[in-house]
Design goal:
The protein is mainly alpha-helical. It is about 75% helix and about 0% strand. Helix 1 crosses helix 2.
């Protein structure tokens, strides 16, 4: 479908010069330029969005797997510290229950 387009003279000269150097018509230069512009500014397809999201998710998962041993080590250290603390408290509680209380009541 033909389109009428007014171009500034200097732009038309540049297009003609480029076309002459490349051995293509001015129309071909303009059509190629429009294709490049649309490709550059096109909205991504659903498949492209999906692929990008899945690649990011895979990278995130790989990163988490790489950090897992370090995190596991820290988790074990915390669990051991908590177990020690509970053992110490249990020991103190057992000792406190085993020690007879002195009665502070006075006989009347």
């Amino acid at each position: 479908m033909p389109i009428s387009l007014r171009l500034p003279p200097e732009l038309e000269t540049q297009i003609a010069g480029y076309g002459a150097r490349e051995g293509i018509s001015k129309s071909a230069v303009i059509v190629r330029s429009i294709h490049e512009f649309l490709a550059k500014h096109a909205q991504p397809s659903a498949l492209q969005i999906y692929d990008e999201v899945m690649q990011e998710a895979a990278a995130s998962l790989e990163s988490a797997r790489a950090r897992a041993p370090e995190q596991r080590s820290r988790k074990l250290q915390v669990r051991k510290a908590i177990a020690r603390k509970h053992a110490e408290r249990s020991e103190r509680a057992t000792q406190a229950l085993a020690t007879p209380r002195s009665s502070s009541r006075k006989s009347a």
